[in-house]
From TrEMBL:
The protein's name in its UniProt record: Golgi-specific brefeldin A-resistance guanine nucleotide exchange factor 1
Origin: domain of life: Eukaryota
Topological relation to the membrane, as annotated: Peripheral membrane protein
Thylakoid found in the keyword field: no
Regions of compositional bias (Basic and acidic residues) in chain numbering: 555-575
Polar residues bias locations: 229-238, 520-544
A molecular function GO annotation: guanyl-nucleotide exchange factor activity
Phylogenetic placement of the source organism: Eukaryota, Metazoa, Chordata, Craniata, Vertebrata
GO annotations of cellular component type: endoplasmic reticulum-Golgi intermediate compartment; Golgi apparatus; lipid droplet; membrane
Listed Basic residues bias regions: 128-142
Pfam families per the UniProt record, alphabetical: Sec7, Sec7-like_HUS
Source species: Solea senegalensis (Senegalese sole)
Keywords linked to the UniProt accession: Cytoplasm, Golgi apparatus, Guanine-nucleotide releasing factor, Lipid droplet, Membrane, Phosphoprotein, Protein transport, Transport
Amino acid sequence: MADAVTHARFVGTDPASDEVVLMKILQVLRTLLLTPVGAHLTNESVCEIMQSCFRICFEMRLSELLRKSAEHTLVDMVQLLFSRIPQFKEEAKSFVGTNMKKAYNILWKNKRVQLKMRAGGMSESSKWKKQKRSPRTPRHTARSPSGQMEPNQSSTLSNNNLSGGVPFIEPGLSTSSLPASDSAASSISSPTTTDSGLDTGSKATSREDLSDLEQCSSSGNMAANASSLPNTEITSPDPQCEGRQVGPAQSVSVESIPEVLEDKDSVTEQSDTSSVHDMDYVNPRGVRFTQSTQRDGASLIPYGLPCLRELFRFLISLTNPHDRHNTDAMMHMGLQLLTVALEAAHIANYQSLLGLVKDELCRHLFQLLSVDRMNLYTSSIRVCFLLFESMRVHLKFQLEMYLKKLMDIITSENVKMPYEMKEMALEALVQLWRIPSFVTELYINYDCDFYCSNLFEDLTKLLSKNAFPVSGQLYTTHLLSLEALLTVIDSTEANCQDKVLSTGAQEQTDDTLAEGDAPNTDNTADLTRLTDTNGLTLPQTNNEPVCPPTSGHLMAEKMKLGRQDQGDNDAAEKKPSKKPHRFSSLLPNSQELLDIRTKKKLLITGTEQFNLKPKKGIQFLQEKGLLTTPMDNNQVAQWLRENPRLDKKMIGEFVSDRKNMELLDSFVNTFTFQGLRIDEALRLYLEAFRLPGEAPVIQRLLETFTDNWHKVNGSPFMTNDAGFALAYAVIMLNTDQHNHNVRKQNIPMTVEQFKKNLKGVNGNQDFDQDMLEDIYNAIKTEEIVMPDEQTGLVKENYVWSLLLHRGATPEGVFLLLPAGSYDHDLFSMTWGPTIAALSYVFDKSLDDNIVQKAITGFRKCAMIAAHYGFSDVFDNLIISLCKFTTLSSESVENLPSVFGGNIKAQTAAKTVFDLAHRHGNILREGWKNIMDSMLQLFRAELLPKAMVEVEDFLEPNGKISLQREETPSNRGESAVLSFVNWLTLSGAEQSGLRGPSTENQETKQAAILCIKQCDPEKLITESKFLQLESLQELMKALISVTPDEETYDEEDAAFCLEMLLRIVLENRDRVSCVWQTVRDHLCHLCVHANESCFLVERAVVGLLRLAIRLLRREDISSQ
């Protein structure tokens, strides 16, 4: 059925009607693949179906509706195919065979067809029109019993597939347009192409040439559809059918369609052309159904992983921005389908797919990050997220490069870079940061790796810096940076909460499970019944037709095949991680990580010194104990190979030094040359350092190399000197082929010249000529890149090859970690930048939501600091928040109105007191700031009455207020003066003195209400729950407000003294721990007083109050 639909032909009438037919074809193909019977299609059939949809999707001359329909069809198909991947098994590489070559060519031929169409579809059409007015020829279709085309037929279809677009519709030679007239048809058909090198490396300029090209591209037992699929084509009537045979079953207006020869074995079947053609059926509308038979009785094998592998490879090829034939639409479509595939599939379990991900896919995606087209940029970021969310364990250095590229985009000063690109890069970071354990894995795998960047530390600094707006105005990028920082805080805080509540939650869970056994059993039974209805076939009722599922995902759910395999694959994916060599265990302790980071800093310093003067760098590392003394050549050689930060030029100079011959031997021994051809080994060798320019030095380096290579490969040449000569010749060939200065002066060497130069060098004999030709082609095709010599794409290729090489070594091991690991270490690194960013955003923002987000961030930081006992963090946080309360910065006269009218200041005050109540145990220096704020509230008369009224023995009611009124004599004098002043004032000023305005009264009431909600008295009453160290710091802060030489406020000192006494009484059960300090303070107040004053009076009363309550305690009664 798939073969019939993809090879159907029909008469083209008008574009609208033709597109209706194409839409029907799409529907049939979609239904065929997305129903359970689709599982029995072969690899080739699936590729034909996919190719048919691609051809429509990429043909821009079709209507947008049809192209979008093909696009959605492709999405569903890719979704189904990759959802089924757990059901397939990885095959041996040698098992791909001819059938997969066919499927491979189907997809890749399709791409070449599209490329030719775009390059030459319209530009050279006028040439063809001049050659022949009507390029259409009468054609007939005949298939041999083996399904192959007859060799004596013309190559029209080949032309069309190589030069046209959608081969379903073929007015004349064109396969890419729906013609409205003869002129339109002839203008679109363009067998000439401006595109060379895609199929055979030569330009096709005629129908015959194209036929030859197509025949060359067909190989072995490839089926007819291998290079020209799908072959569903529309033919238009042509009255000029000169001398061409028309099949008897065909309508007069329907042309028969010859197809290109695709199998040389079918030559013997020419005589069967007419008979086979007679067996074809053509319905009244002109749709031909051509017979097809299986060759050699081969069995039809259902599609599997090979089909998906080639489809995956094809999708990746569409995303290559350096392929000039990939249009933006093609790249976007490729990215969209890759997104669908990655969302549906467990690709990491299949090495053949994983290899494509590591190399081509990641490389194309990173290149797309540099384009200025937002749709491609955003799509590539989306695909990158899916890759690193699920496969980062296999992509260590790819992830490092990706994050560095994002950092470059965020910090770019290029005025041409759109603001949206920076915004998207920050959003990408935020998304990655939200992956559980992602930032922890960054820290362990990169910051704690000797030869990787400090990714987590650098990104944290970048985000913190980016949260500070230069202009003072907050934009989305600043808020996204803050959100990324808060993501780390959020996850750490959640893990701390889990640890605190884990015991109770576990007990509660156990109780719930014990009570809910029976209902769970029923639920399981219900689930079982539901699952049983999902068989391979779609559910069908008596009178309802079977409808195809609405998406590929739903179809995969219906098919329910290989679910057990799915579980096995998941289990395989969760296999234990390999332990990196630098760690003693899979979960090293914090001290070990600290030692590694210290060692890493020393290595970086030593590397910098080596890059200036190698001997000095080696000496520094020996002094620090990182390299042994005397120098161990093997150890140094390994360091030179492993350290990517080393200057390649300095490595070359150091190892080639005549004094370091033993080191050079050790250095060469670090390479694995066994099984490599000499040019391959030399490429590996020369990419590890910069080859010096002096001839004696080059000779030393090459002699050591060839001796080693010759030895490990079983001495393939007559002498070592022959290997040296060949290695030198390879270097000269590389210079000849790729050095632009040499190419300007001389014509590049040919393979014959290369062979001639090496004639008789192999011990007076010749080298193997095939080997020399292979070496020549390898060097000509791909340059041996000398480090630091090239720029642009050549350098990118070199850097990428180094990345892949490092990823294949033990350095590429990526450690996956459980959530909550090393939160202590991460918070130690992030709290400073995060609190700084929070403070800035809180201060500058006017948006209530952002202010609330900042406050939430402060609270979470406080909770984490309390959990880990970080007193310095909590003090810093309290000090920062106290500044925002405005209590310490405003004068006492203005404080009620300013504080009462500032919602942000009130929020900060509430947060300060709430955090002090919750986490006062770890508060140390911050008590001083809180007490300063309390004093300001006392001076502004904003404290609750209970805090300013204290116990007294002389007052009738036993209470006295610390906020004293003026004495009567002073009050009378001041009244007279006030009256005189009032008489001299203007009316407005007089009204101002009558009392505070209504607005001021309202703001003062708001301030009083806020302070009441803060409940500052709770700090006193609950001080008995404070840890002793925190209690001592609180008392020290209160005692600091004492009379000094001349400047002090008596009421302030009295207020602090009363709070101190109340705290002592609240802590009378452990008063012995603080009594000495309190006694000394009271003694100081009483003994050093020059005259009787209110403060001395309160000190004496306080001492009496303490005596009444504490004299019964034997430990302090004597004091």
